[in-house]
Amino acid sequence: MLIALKPVAAQNCKCDRDSVNLNINCDTILFDNHAMLYWNYNCDSSWLTFKNQDNKVVLFSLGAELMWYTGNIGYSHFIEYKSMFLGVYQTISGCCSPPDYYLHDKTSGKLIRYLGPAIFASADKNFPYVVSFANSPNLDSMDLDYNTLVIYNIETGKEAKMKIAKGDIKRAIESSSSLSFDDIFRKAEVIDGKIILKYISKLGSNKKGNRYKTITVDVNQYGI
What we know:
Structural class: mainly beta
Low-confidence stretches: none
Order of helices and strands: EEEEEEEEEEEEEHEEE
Number of helices: 1
Radius of gyration: 20 Å
Oligomer: single chain
């Protein structure tokens, strides 16, 4: 559970220019190992700092032209686990692109892995799993493979792949005229170690509601 505290000593969170009016939350995020995250800003930039008992490091920054978008571009919020934390990273401000997920070590702040956009990211320390689509097998493509899920254990660093019905997700995205898979998936449920992913398979008409399908990911069967 993340704890928000008042700004720490020596934290810079102001600009004296009358023309600069930033709405940046400078409250400190305290992890259970006493490491912390906090934003700083001045008239020229904003930056996110990770601090432990020994040192501190800047994880992200925005220059003068983009600092107005602090919290809407780049890191927007965080999920804490036993030894790691996830940074939820907004690639653009507003719609229509799902956020990326970056995994950091909770002791050092070091970036461990880029996880890309996720369908599911657990907020439970005792169930540290992220589910996403695999990258396209075409090495020249930046597209996702909508026929393959990647189940990743944040604490062990192990992953498994799961094949799903070929073409279902792509057809669902096209049917709903969505720009991203993020638009068709509803909030996931976790029941007895199984992640239930629900998505709109077809938009409804005026007379009929949306049609839904589910994908069940049983992490117990993968040994990760």
